[in-house]
Design brief:
The chain is mainly alpha-helical and 343 residues long. The chain contains 16 helices and 2 strands. It has a two-stranded antiparallel sheet with strand order 1-2.
Length: 343
């Protein structure tokens, strides 16, 4: 055995917490593996693509894809010497300083009233949603919401409440994206946010109703359709429940069946259960009228059982004295006149 094969691996590799909080949830499995190996093998020095290939942790064809992913996420720097790991701690400090400068922070050690308010808010968010162990990067998100986006305190708190509800409160990128979405939609005060929160509550109720009534698993596509019933149609539980009842004749009801029914009602101006019932009754009457009309038309033409596909044609002996017109209806024969007409 060579010397390298006999080496005891008892060293430690330190990974910044900021990597775990901000980057890890967004990376592919291969990218995480390569980053960890790079942190162990190339501490403080540059490396090339060939160095990564020599680690034999991935196929060569996958190395380029992983490098591209790490570069796009800001975890690798590229220079003339090759690649090097980005100093995540230094970036974090630099961004924090920029935030403080944007807030107008000076050398005064005494907290302003706004900063005191921020401290109370951040402490509440930390204890409520992170069990007292909130990563520093989320403090920076709070600062961004308060100073850059001009969120009310209650709006900022509701942001983290919504993140916890969606089970994404520990993903910085997703939380930052949600904050940006609220800012772009103008949800900066609690009054403007209330409608949004009420709609989210209504969506949750509809998802629960469909899951319980239909006894199915709601996937992402189903959830998107259900959300549309609130966002596009402004329908509530009563309309959705009635749509489910109208589809009970099916062996198995799907979210798409309900969506088709609700879409038809919306396109025909049915914004309440009473209007939907009236529309369905009118449709039933119209369909029955069409059926009766088709049936009446079909009954005007006489067909034998064989022609109609009801009975099978059977061969049998025909006696010479058997009347070939015995089984023909009178009303059909009358169309051709009687025997006397030939006289």
């Amino acid at each position: 055995m060579g010397k390298e094969e006999n080496r005891l691996v008892i060293s430690d590799t330190l990974i910044p917490d900021i990597f775990i909080v901000r980057y890890l949830p967004e990376l592919s499995r291969n990218a995480v593996m390569v980053y960890l190996y790079c942190s162990m093998e190339f501490k403080g020095r540059a490396f090339a693509e060939q160095d990564l290939k020599s680690l034999s942790i991935l196929q060569d064809k996958d190395i380029y894809e992983v490098i591209s992913e790490l570069l796009s996420k800001g975890l690798l720097d590229k220079n003339d010497e090759g690649y090097s790991l980005t100093d995540l701690k230094m970036n974090e400090v630099s961004e924090y300083i920029k935030t403080r400068v944007a807030m107008g922070d000076g050398t005064n050690l005494e907290l302003s009233s706004d900063e005191s308010r921020r401290a109370v808010l951040a402490d509440s968010i930390n204890n409520t949603f992170y069990g007292g162990r909130m990563a520093n990067i989320f403090y920076r998100l709070i600062d961004k919401c308060l100073w850059e986006y001009k969120f009310d305190d209650k709006v900022c708190y509701q942001l983290f409440s919504e993140g916890a509800r969606r089970k994404m409160s520990r993903s910085y990128n997703r939380m930052e994206k949600l904050a940006e979405e609220w800012y772009n939609k103008g949800y900066t005060t609690i009054d403007k946010l209330e409608t949004y929160l009420e709609r989210n509550e209504e969506k949750d109720k509809l998802v629960a109703l469909c899951r319980k009534t239909l006894r199915i698993t709601i996937n992402e596509l189903d959830e998107s359709r259900i959300h549309g019933w609130v966002d596009k149609f402004c329908f509530g539980e009563d309309m959705v429940y009635y749509a489910i009842k109208k589809n009970e004749y099916r062996g198995k009801i799907t979210i798409l069946n309900i969506d088709d029914t609700l879409t038809r009602w919306f396109e025909n101006g049915c914004d309440s259960v009473s209007k939907a019932e009236e529309y369905e009754n009118e449709q039933h009457t119209a369909n029955k009228r069409k059926y009766d009309k088709r049936k009446a038309k079909a009954d005007t033409v006489w067909k034998s059982g064989v022609e109609a596909g009801i009975t099978r044609e059977e061969k049998k002996d025909t006696r010479e004295d058997e009347d070939p017109e015995a089984n023909v209806p009178d009303d059909v024969l009358s169309m051709f006149g009687g025997d006397d007409d030939d006289d």
